[in-house]
Amino acid sequence: MSTAPRLSLHDWSSLRTELLWIYDHAPAAKARHVTADHRQSNWAWYLRRGEVRITTRHGPLTARAGQWLFLPNERHPQDFSDDASLISINFRCQWPAGDPLFGSSRGSVLDGTAHPRLEQTAKRLEKLVLRHFPVQHYIYAQQFADYSLFLRFQRAFFEWLEAWFDTRIAIGDIPSRNQVDARLLRSLHLLDEAPLEPGLPQTALQTVAGVSRVQLNRLFRTQLKLTPLQYWERRRLESARLFLETSDLPLKELAARLGFRSDSHFTVWFKRHAGSSPGRYREQPVQR
């Protein structure tokens, strides 16, 4: 069993935690036999029926009915049996630089009976989501709710997150430590929340950090190995992928929302960063 690091409450609060989706049914046909990219978030699958096999860089992993599979943060082939049905939870739990809390995991297969809180909290969370959003949504953070409902979602999600964290510790996974300068935290909060359309908020960034542009760049490079612009571009790419995966927005409108002068500028930029055109990316199976 590993030991969780002891950090200040302020440091723990800098973790970015967010439910992306949860469902309890058979996987989509187009996602049964594909190479999936699981690098951007955390994934946990509980097999109700059938089985799934993934091939990781450390070797194959197979989960069967009654077992949990914690996926490693990497690209890998996945193959579900024809009768497979599962609880699928996709969520973020990462430090400001984008590093996952458990960044070095090889993936794990666990018997559900040995970790009952995982299924109990997942079922409560899924029922709450389904009650208020009966139409399947892949990105729940984009849905609308009042503050009271938001708090109920957070409470249910954090119950699941606690069960997941305690289980990871119990099986020997080691969480990473990440203590971030307060000036950097203020800057990252601004970069994460600022609208993309107007572009990088350089002046506001220097104001919230209280340092010059040169000092701010040095701070980012020292702690994140990124410049503010590189962090901003990464957020734009993440948003572009989500729009392409979950919406039918015309490219011209999507490009405008992301701060590009035209859809042609966006297409060139996206192909350079993602390795394929927006149209081709949109045609690929969504990895659920």
Task: Describe the structure in your own words.
This protein has helices at 9-13, 116-132, 147-170, 182-193, 202-209, 213-224, 228-246, 251-257, 263-274, 278-283; strands at 16-25, 33-37, 42-49, 51-56, 59-64, 67-70, 75-80, 85-94, 108-111. With 288 residues, the protein is of the alpha+beta class. The strands form two sheets. It has a five-stranded antiparallel sheet with strand order 1-8-3-6-9, with helices on one face. The mean pLDDT is 89.
**Helix count, DSSP H or I runs of 4 or more residues:** 10
Shape: globular
Radius of gyration: 20 Å
What is the H-and-E element order? HEEEEEEEEEHHHHHHHHH
How would you describe the oligomerization state of the chains in this entry?
single chain
Q: How far from one another are the termini?
A: 31 Å
Low-confidence stretches: none
Helix share, percent? 40-55%
Proportion of residues in extended strands: 15-25%
Give the overall average pLDDT: 89
Number of strands: 9
Largest sheet: 5 strands, antiparallel
> In terms of structural class, how would the helical and strand content be classed?
alpha+beta
**Widest β-sheet, arrangement of strands:** 1-8-3-6-9
Brief description of this entry?
The chain is α+β, with helices and mostly antiparallel strands and 288 residues long. It contains 10 helices and 9 strands.
List keywords for this structure.
288 residues; 20% strand; 42% helix; five-stranded antiparallel β-sheet; four-stranded antiparallel β-sheet
